[in-house]
Amino acid sequence: MNKTMSVLNIILIILLLYLIVTIVVYFFQRKLLYHPSALLNFSQETTGLGLEHKFEKIKIEVNKNIYLNGWFHIKDIEKKTILFLHGNAGNLDNRIYKLNFLGNLDINFLIISWRGYSLSGGKPTEYGLYEDAKTAVNFLLNKGILEQDIILYGESLGTAVAVEIGQNKNFAGIILEAPFTSMIELGQKYYPFFPVKFLLKDKYESNKKIKNLKSPLLVMHGKKDKIVPFYMGENIFNMANNPKFKYFTDIDDHMMDFDEKLINEIDLFINSLN
Fold it and tell me: What is the domain range of residue 244?
C-alpha cells in the first residue's frame, strides 16, 4: 500500500509541476515569441548608420497611443515600392545589410518597426502586427503610391503578416523569406509536450490564408534553416496560387545570405511584375 501511495504521490507531483509550467508558458508566451532586443548587441535604439541610401526617418500613427518608427527611401513615386515587414527579433539596424542591397535595385522601400520594437509604442500581438502593416500600407497610399505598385516583403514572422494583409488584394507582388506554415505547427515542433493548439494566443495561420493571395509570389528559403524548417517554406510554396516562383538553396540558414544570386532572383521577380 505504501509503495502504491508513493507512486501516486510522484505522479501527482509530476502532474502538478506540468500544470504549473503550462500556466507559466501560457502567460509568458509572448515573451518567448517577440524579441525586440533578442541578443546582447541588439538594442531598442536605431541609428541607421551604415545605410547607404538616402532615407527619411518617419513616425506612422496607428492610434493615439501607438506610433511606428520607420525608414522611407524614395527614388521615384512611379516606381515599385517594397514594404519590408521584419521578423520577431532585433531592430531596424539589424536589417541595414538587406536594405543596402534592396536599395541598389530600381525601387523605393519602406521598413517599419513593429509596435514594441525600435522604440515604437505598444506591445506586439498577432492582430496588433496586422494593424501595423495595414497602417504602413495606408501611409504609402497617402503618399500617392498605388496598391498595385507595392511589393510586400515578409521576413520570417513578417511572412505571416504579409500573407494576412495580402489576401484578396492587388499588390504588385509578395516576397516571403523563410516562411512558416503556422505558429501552431512551429510551436508544436519546439514545445511538443504542451497542448500548443489550445494555449497559443498568436496563431499566424498562413497555411489557411495562402490560397487567398492573388499577387505574384516569390518564396525564398534555405534548406539549413535551424529555426523554421525548410519543409514549411516548401509547403507554403506548394499551396500557393500561380504565378509563383521559388528560390531554395542548399546552404542558407534562417537569415539568408544576401548574395548576388539572391539579389538577382529578387530583381528578376520585380522586373517580371506589371
Answer: 34-272
